[in-house]
Amino acid sequence: MKNPLIENISKAFIDTFKQDPILVFSPGRINVIGEHTDYNDGFVFPAAIDQGIAAAIQKSETNTCIAHAYDLNDSYEFSLDNITPLQNGGWRNYVIGVVAEIQKKGITVPAFNIVFGGNIPEGAGLSSSAALENSVVFGLNELFKLGLTKSEMILVSQQAEHNFAGVRCGIMDQYASMFGQKDHALLLDCRTQEATPFFIDLHDYQLLLVNTNVKHDLSEAAYNDRRQVCETVSKHLKIDALRDATEADLLKIKSKLTEDDYQKALYVIQENNRALEAVDAMKANELERLGALLFASHDGLQNQYHVSCPELDFLVDFAKNNENIIGARMMGGGFGGCTINMVKKSALETVQKTISKIYKEAFNKDCSFYNVNLSEGTHLVQI
Ligand code: GAF
């Protein structure tokens, strides 16, 4: 089947570098439930989607590398010596960050050129950055036979995010993007990095993403702060991560914490339990129970963890009062991006029309809708 994204990226590479590249597709991800639990060694329930980043890569005939962001029509030439993070480097940091993290493993990366582009919006909470990182490490590994396993590659991507993009993220996004399976979501234990795939069939319902079109650009510091709170509370509890705590454990040290930190830690413990319960609900085909867990997750993200925003809350409040939507919540790191909704298939069109109208009235801007298919993880493609 023809894929215009991959064809465009391939053509752009050939036009610029007069060589045939290898082609990689690396998907974005959704997350059914289990938000901000990954860096607490907890459980998440993500899936790779059929939208993501396509990259064309080939070795360079010079000593320098050129990376070209097709969608932005922006290029960056760099040398492989002494790579350091760039101030306000944007997409460049993901590319050079991956290279530097491979080098830190004592592996030599020969010079290469890359053209990449995507069909997931940046800043929508669909992990375009993890998709880009994975496309680079996967492409380089294939091209130069670096001998990295997929498990090693996602750690390279995660370290690039930490050290070059400045976000101390967990492993969910890189894992889902690399290991996704068609039609499945993965119950991932972020401590052991073992995943159980679940075939997703929501019968009369389907997942609909609604993008607030609020970009979560400036959220790095807020994200890292929350991770710091979780680590501090874990120290008080003398445990490795909040995954090991119960609500009763937390209550015992409540007097040592601010109310705000207590609520944040409580959210993580409760969300971790919700992720496990969601899988039970799905196995038992109890979709309304699953939906209720999504609403509860949003409540926690909004009122305890404080990572939502008015636009996301507005969409979830609408969903709560709509008979055709049985569950909804904000998805990803927060501060903008998408909500994930369980919508009755027969009412999909009406629901979208209503949301478009009321969202525009409330915020004087448009929201966007994505009907995504669950798909395989990062892979080579041929055209
Ligand atoms: C972002 C991070 F990159 C993930 O690791 C995860 O923590 C998520 O926010 C929240 O669940 O996408």
Characterise the protein shown here.
The protein is of the alpha+beta class. It has a domain at 4-199 and 375-381: Ribosomal Protein S5, domain 2, CATH 3.30.230. It is 42% helix and 22% strand. The strands form 3 sheets. A 6-stranded mixed beta sheet has the order 5-4-6-3-1-13, with helices on both faces. A 4-stranded antiparallel beta sheet has the order 10-11-9-12. A hairpin with a 7-residue loop joins β10 (325-330) and β11. α4 packs antiparallel against α5 (172-179). The protein is globular. The structure holds 2-deoxy-2-fluoro-alpha-D-galactopyranose (GAF). Residues 35-36, 38-39, 127, 169-170, 172-173, 332-333 line the site of 2-deoxy-2-fluoro-alpha-D-galactopyranose. Its EC number is 2.7.1.6. Belongs to the GHMP kinase family. GalK subfamily. Pfam families: GalKase_gal_bdg, GHMP_kinases_C, GHMP_kinases_N.
Task: Spell out the helices and strands N to C.
Answer: HEEEEEHEHHHEEEHHHHHEEHEE
Shape: globular
Number of helices: 11
Q: Biggest β-sheet, characterized?
A: 6 strands, mixed
Helix and strand content put the structural class at alpha+beta
Strand content: 15-25%
- Low-confidence runs of at least 5 consecutive residues: none
The N- and C-terminal alpha carbons lie at a distance of 9 Å
How is the CATH topology of the domain at 4-199 and 375-381 named? Ribosomal Protein S5, domain 2
Helix content: 40-55%
Number of strands: 13
Oligomer: single chain
The level-1 CATH class of the domain at 4-199 and 375-381: Alpha Beta
The small-molecule ligands in this entry are: 2-deoxy-2-fluoro-alpha-D-galactopyranose
